[in-house]
Specification:
By secondary structure, the protein is α/β, with parallel strands linked by helices. It folds into 2 domains: 241 residues, Spore Coat Polysaccharide Biosynthesis Protein SpsA, Chain A, CATH 3.90.550.10; 44 residues, no CATH class. The chain is built from 10 helices and 13 strands. A 5-stranded mixed beta sheet has the order 3-2-1-4-10. A 3-stranded mixed beta sheet has the order 5-11-8, with helices on both faces. Strands 7-6-9 form a 3-stranded antiparallel beta sheet. The radius of gyration is 18 Å and the shape is globular. The mean pLDDT is 88.
């Protein structure tokens, strides 16, 4: 029923743990494809369900969705290497899929601007939601019907787009444009982390490490450019589609974009936690910094 696609590069030390999370799902997976852009992995050392593709160079994040075309199952789930789903996450996605066919993920964003990636409204493991929420894009995990890959590859990525970003926006836009399919985050209730898309502690730790794509030099600029490219092409954001939603106030360019703030957040975890609480509190009043 489900094929899982993982990617390995600089954080191969966590691959065994991630595979264990996948194999412990309440709904058994048929295959685990590992798209390896790092040091060669030995297939003999892994479970018989695991298929390893060792690459001689880093082909980036888009290529995972080409590798997924080899799946024979009805559903596919692509996971980032910092994502460790609870044992009921796949079941959670399948139950929501029956109610509302959509591209589901572990974390979803609603953009507040068509030109800037940040600030945004978040749902999922970093901001729990009690019911499924429609978002602009999802990340960390993409759970979908295999046939929807035909929409992903309906338009090839622009050669001017970084191989390290933009695949999330591309997928949501292609599904919106050609199939009328929404992008959603399944329920992530505070009191039941077994159905969450990722372990929040590990996701936060690895997502802010030096190896993370989002932490690279100029990463936010690449994100901004990708968002601008797709909204200019016709990608409709929820802020424009949902006219009944309350007005959101955005102050400044996004405090988390500032290098000095990023430096302090990494050096002082307490400062980072305080900042997150302040931003979350302000967001309750529809104010985003």
């Amino acid at each position: 029923m489900i094929t899982v696609v993982l990617n390995a590069f600089k954080r191969q030390d966590y691959l065994d743990r991630q595979i264990a999370c996948v194999l412990s799902q309440s709904i058994a997976v048929e295959k685990i494809f590992v798209w390896n852009n790092g040091q060669p992995l030995n297939p003999i050392e892994y479970d018989k369900k695991v298929v390893i593709a060792n690459n001689s160079q880093n082909l980036g994040v888009w290529s995972r969705f080409a590798f997924a075309l080899n799946a024979d199952t009805e559903y596919v789930c692509v996971l980032d290497d910092d994502t460790f789903p609870g044992e009921l996450f796949f079941q959670n996605c399948l139950e929501q899929m029956k109610k509302q066919p959509a591209l589901y993920g572990a974390r979803g964003l609603r953009f507040l601007s068509a030109k800037r990636y940040e600030p945004f409204i978040s749902f999922g493991w970093d901001s729990p939601n009690n019911k499924s929420e429609v978002v602009d894009i999802v990340g960390h995990a993409w759970f979908f019907k295999r046939e929807w890959l035909s929409a992903f590859w309906r338009e090839q990525p622009n050669t001017g787009v970084s191989r390290l970003v933009g695949e999330d926006i591309h997928f949501s836009y292609m599904l919106q444009k050609y199939m009328g399919i929404k992008t959603m985050v399944p329920p992530h209730p505070q009191n039941n982390k077994s159905i969450w898309g990722s372990d929040p502690v590990l996701a936060e730790k690895l997502g802010t490490s030096d190896e993370a794509i989002s932490q690279g030099e100029g990463a936010l600029l690449h994100f901004d450019l990708a968002l601008q490219k797709y909204t200019k092409a016709g990608f409709k954001l929820q802020k424009d589609l949902n006219h009944n939603s309350p007005k959101e106030l955005v102050l400044g360019p996004g405090i988390s974009r500032m290098r000095y703030i990023q430096f302090l957040a990494k050096k002082y975890p307490k400062f980072n936690n305080l900042g997150r609480r302040v931003r979350k509190k302000l967001s309750e009043f529809k104010i985003h910094i």
